[in-house]
Structure formats: C-alpha cells, structure tokens
Design brief:
- Helices cover 20% and strands 36% of the residues.
- The chain is an alpha+beta fold.
- The longest helix has 11 residues, at 15-25.
- It binds cobalt (II) ion (CO).
C-alpha cells in the first residue's frame, strides 16, 4: 500500500541555522522558509535526489511541535512521510487493521497542498507516520 518515502521531518528551534547547516556543511539544495499558520509551523525542504528532509520550526503560541521540542531541546526526527495512491482507501484499510488515525480521521491539506493523515506513533514503533496522497 505505501509507496515512496516522501520526506523525513526534523523539528528544529532555528530553521535558518538548520538550513545553513544542510546548505553549507552538507552541500544540499534547500528551499526558502515558508510560514504555514494553519499548521503552526514554518517549513523548509531539503531536496535530495531520492527524497526530502522537512525542517519544522514552531510558529505561533500553540504550535503542535512545541511540546516535542521541549522534550528534544536539540531538535529531532519528528515524523516520516510515505506516499499512498488513495488516502481514503489507505485510511479505511489501516482502521480495519486496528491502527489509529489522529485527529478526526479526515485528511487535511499538508505542506505540499496534498491530502495528508497522521498515524498514532504507538501503533508504528514509536514513530509518527504521515501519509500523503501522491
Ligand atoms: Co511532513
């Protein structure tokens, strides 16, 4: 059911610093930061030949990643994102298998303007999983 690894997301306190590290030290192509007020984050993508790294910096007072950064003050891997062809079919399959879908269970529009869902980390080896309709 799942296809390509779309991205690995890393939560950071300072997105400019993280971008400079990947651009200058690792020599990667890095997009400019984009604020996403609806999601409470500022986002940068590191574009690798086979996938992407997504940096997430908290935006606003009640950012969903604020608590994560309290627990991981140096930043850390926040989620992995896999592509699916049909997000509603994927959701229904996962629910039938007993996996928990976060929120109200309906896809939201994610960072790439495509429908996304998140799956409970306790059901997936302690890792928050994002599904994105490719
Ligand atoms: Co993501």
């Amino acid at each position: 059911m799942i296809g390509r690894l779309n991205h690995v997301a890393i939560a950071v306190r300072d997105i400019e610093k993280a971008s400079a590290l990947y651009r200058d030290t690792l020599g990667a192509r890095v997009t400019p930061p984009v604020d996403q007020p609806a999601h409470g984050v500022t986002v940068v993508f590191v574009e690798l030949p086979n996938t992407k790294i997504e940096f997430l910096q908290p935006l606003g007072a009640d950012s969903p990643i604020a608590k994560f950064l309290d627990k991981n003050p140096d930043g850390g891997i926040h989620h992995v994102c896999y592509e699916v062809d049909d997000i509603l079919a994927a959701r229904d399959h996962l629910k039938a298998q007993g996996a928990r879908v976060l929120g109200d269970g309906n896809p939201k529009i994610g960072a790439h303007d495509k429908p996304v869902l998140f799956l409970h980390p306790k059901d997936f080896n302690g890792t928050l999983v994002e599904l994105e309709q490719a």
